[in-house]
Amino acid sequence: MTKLLILLWLCTGSLVFGQKIEIIHLKTYRNLVSKENDSLYVVNFWATWCAPCVKELPDFLEVEKELIDKKLRFIFISLNNKKEFNKTEVFAKRIGMSFPTYLMDAGNPNDWIDAVEKEWSGSIPFTVFYYKGKNIFFREGEWRKEALLSEIKNTFTKN
Amino acid sequence: MGDKAEGFNLKNVDGKMISLADYGKSKGVILIFTCNHCPFSKKYEGRILELDKSFKKQGWPVVAISSNDPNVQPEDSFENMQKLAKQKKYSFPYLFDETQAIAKTYGATKTPHVFLLENTKEGFMVQYIGAIDDNAEDAKSVSTKYVEQAIHEIDKGNKPNPSVTKAIGCSIKWKKTAE
């Protein structure tokens, strides 16, 4: 019985302290990015199968550290298939993902890609900035750290 | 949409050059930007073969193009394209857009990315841009086959509706520019 409890504790413990991800739909996405506070939300669409996405993740982690004093929040949205939920969670944990991470239940992408950004063709990586609930900037393509850092700094200067 | 499609002249996996002008006798061309490595391109390999099988005889052959830079993604080298085309018994040309000029001209951003080119008296016209169907994950769960639907509409003399659709895909691997 004690062994069972320890096992249970270990299992739940790893869930609490590891990077958890959550499956979301467009409605939840809208709630996540429509906050009317004065934080800048930087949302990145990625997937474990997308090489340039995986390559730029450490840059996002570094930028977060450098701008720790700013009102900046990163949100990561995986476009992995729902069947790859566990794989995505294990991956997020392995790379030390510190950002809130979600998995978009893609369904028919025509139902939500335009709602995120009409100009987005659907290729990833894709990054979109929200400020006071508004989409103020987006980029289809990968970042290098310096470019991301300067874009975010510019956004803070302008707003 | 409805714009004139730019011509191209690219090397096929069999070493021969293929140009859009070679399709002067067809009703149109199903132009698909795809590649070897992308998981979404892989999911659609079978469906692209099916499209060519069904529509080539109706005057709408498939022409596939890979524009990825093999220096960025070695799996998309010309040699690997040749291997894949042989292995999967591609019944359609699989062209290498080495300079990436054709992807840029068409505004292709990802793989797979479809452009339906209708052959008219004024030349080839772009009538549809987007996805093959509405379910990348599972061919059996598709509810709308966008490309097939669009071809049927064009053949009837109508404009496709929708004429633009979205899908998740891998970005085209552009050549690295010096910074």
List the helices and strands and how they pair.
The complex is a heterodimer of chains A (about 160) and B (about 180).
Chain A: H1 2-17, E1 21-24, H2 26-33, E2 40-46, H3 51-66, E3 72-78, H4 85-94, E4 101-104, H5 113-116, E5 123-124, E6 126-131, E7 134-140, H6 145-158
Parallel strand pairs in A: 1-4, 2-3, 3-4
Antiparallel strand pairs in A: 2-6, 6-7
Chain B: E1 9-12, E2 17-19, E3 28-33, H1 39-55, E4 62-66, H2 78-87, E5 94-96, H3 101-106, E6 110-111, E7 113-120, E8 123-130, H4 146-155, E9 169-171
Parallel strand pairs in B: 3-4, 4-5
Antiparallel strand pairs in B: 1-2, 1-5, 3-7, 6-9, 7-8
Contiguous low-pLDDT stretches of chain B (5 residues minimum) are none
* Mean pLDDT across residues of chain B: 96
User: Strand percentage of chain B, roughly?
Assistant: 15-25%
Measured on Cα atoms, how large is the radius of gyration of chain B?
15 Å
The level of helicity of chain B is 10-25%
Strand content of chain A: 15-25%
Our Rg estimate of chain A from Cα atoms comes to 17 Å
Query: Quick one: overall form of chain B?
Result: globular
Low-confidence stretches of chain A: 9-17
Task: Give me the secondary-structure category of chain B.
Answer: alpha+beta
Shape of chain A: globular
Name the chain pair with the biggest interface and residue counts per chain: A-B, 21 and 21 residues
Label the structural class of chain A.
alpha/beta
Question: How many extended strands of chain A?
Answer: 7
Q: In total, how many beta strands of chain B?
A: 9
- Within the largest sheet of chain B, what's the order of strands? 2-1-5-4-3-7-8
Distance between the ends of chain A: 58 Å
- The arrangement of helices and strands of chain B along the chain is EEEHEHEHEEEHE
Q: What characterizes the major β-sheet of chain A?
A: 6 strands, mixed
Q: Order of strands side by side in the largest beta sheet of chain A? A: 1-4-3-2-6-7
